[in-house]
Amino acid sequence: MKNTFGSDLSLTIFGESHGRAVGAVLDGMAAGVPVDESFLAACMDKRRARGDGLSTPRVEADAVQLLSGVVNGHTTGTAIALMIENQNTRSADYAKTADLLRPGHADFTAYAKYHGFQDARGGGHFSGRVTAALVAGGSIVLAALQRAGIDITTHIARCADIADTPFALDDPAALAAQAETLASKTEGFAVLDAAVEEPMKTAIRAAGAEGDSVGGVLETAILGLPAGIGEPYFDSVESEIAHLAFSVPAVKGIEFGTGFGFAGLRGSEANDAFRMTAEGAVVTATNHNAGINGGIANGMPVVFRTAVKPTPSIYKQQDTVDYIAKKDAQLSIQGRHDPCIVPRAAIVQTCAAALAVGDLLTARYGARWMTDPTGYRKED
Ligand SMILES: Cc1cc2nc3c(=O)[nH]c(=O)nc-3n(C[C@H](O)[C@H](O)[C@H](O)COP(=O)(O)O)c2cc1C
Ligand SMILES: C=C(O[C@@H]1CC(C(=O)O)=C[C@@H](OP(=O)(O)O)[C@H]1O)C(=O)O
C-alpha cells in the first residue's frame, strides 16, 4: 500500500480517474524556493488532452490548486499539497462492461488485489489521469533543478514505426542545443525533426480510426547532473530513475545509453575513454554508459529511453472473460481513450525523472541545492 516515492524528497500521489480529484503531496522542499505557477501550468498543458484525434476526447482544464506549502510564489518549507479536479468524467461508459476485464489494463489485477472494492470507473487509481498529479509535483522539482543548473527534457524518439532524430549521446554541446529546441516548443508534441511530426500524427490517427492504438519510445536527457550523485547498489542513479519511470502507466522497458546494444559490442568499443578538459574537468570522449558508472553519475549527460506500449483500451472487439459470471466473453468498449499515450507521456517522463534526481541530489547535498542553487557544488 505504498503511494510514496523518495527518501529525502518525496512525492505521495492520490486519486482516481472518476473521483473528485487527483493530487499529490510533495514533501522535503526547503523554504524560500520560488514556485512559478506559469511554469507549472505550461508543464500541465503539455500533458493535457486536446481532443484533436491524437489524444483522449476527455478534455478538461487540468488546473492545479496549490492547497498548502506555497505562499507569495515561494515554498514555505512545509508539505506542498496540490490537487487537480476531475471535471469531465463519464462513468456510464464503464458501467456497461463493468464485469468484462479489459486486456492490457489493470482491471483484473486491481480486482485480485482489492477484492472488488477498487474504484473501477475510468481505470480508477490505475488511470493515466493520475499522472496529472505526478506532473504537477514533478514540475515544481524540475524548476528547482533548472535553477541549480540541471535540465531534463524528453522527446518522442519513436511513434509507431516512425523515428525522430536521436539525442546526441556522445556530444554534450549538441545535446544541449537539442534540449533548447525542445524547450522552445509549447505544444505537447515533442519531436526534434519537424519532418516526422505529421507522419507520426497520421499513424496515430490511422490507428485510432481503426479502433486500435499505437505505442512508441520516449528518450529523456538529464544535463548538468554533478559527478558523484547516486549510491553504488540499491539507490543507483539507474535504479532511482527506473523506479520512477516504471511508475508511469504503460511504460514496459528502459535502457540507458547504449543499453541493449552493449550486448553486441566488444569492451574496446563499449568503453568510454576518459579525457581532461582545458579547465581540468574529467569527461569521456563517448557516452555509451550514459553518464553513469557504478550507479554513480560521472558528470556526462544521463540519457535513457522508455518503451511505451500501445493504449490497452481499444475499440476493436477483444477476447476476455466475464469475471462475475466466470465465463469467456467478448468485449467491445465504449468511452474515450488515447489512441497513443506517447506524446502526452513525454512530460510525465521528464517530471518522473525530476523527482528521482531531486531525491538523489537531496541525499547528497541536503536542501543546499535548493537554497543555494549556484553555490551548492563548491566542495565537489
Ligand atoms: C498519460 C497517459 C494516458 C493514458 N491514457 C490511457 C487511455 O486513454 N486508455 C487506456 O486504456 N490506458 C491509458 N493509459 C495507460 C493505462 O493507464 C495503463 O496501461 C494501465 O494502467 C495498465 O498499466 P500497465 O500498462 O503499466 O501495465 C495512459 C497512460 C498514461 C501515462
Ligand atoms: C483522463 C485522462 O486520461 C484517461 C486515461 C485512461 C486510462 O485508463 O489510463 C482512460 C481514459 O479515462 P476516461 O475513460 O475517464 O476518459 C482517459 O481519458 C487524463 O490523462 O487526464
TrEMBL record:
GO molecular function: chorismate synthase activity
Reaction equations catalysed: 5-O-(1-carboxyvinyl)-3-phosphoshikimate = chorismate + phosphate
Keywords assigned: Amino-acid biosynthesis, Aromatic amino acid biosynthesis, FAD, Flavoprotein, FMN, Lyase, NADP
Enzyme superclass (EC): lyase
Binding site for NADP(+): R47
Gene3D superfamilies: Chorismate synthase AroC (3.60.150.10)
HAMAP family: Chorismate_synth
Protein name listed in UniProt: Chorismate synthase
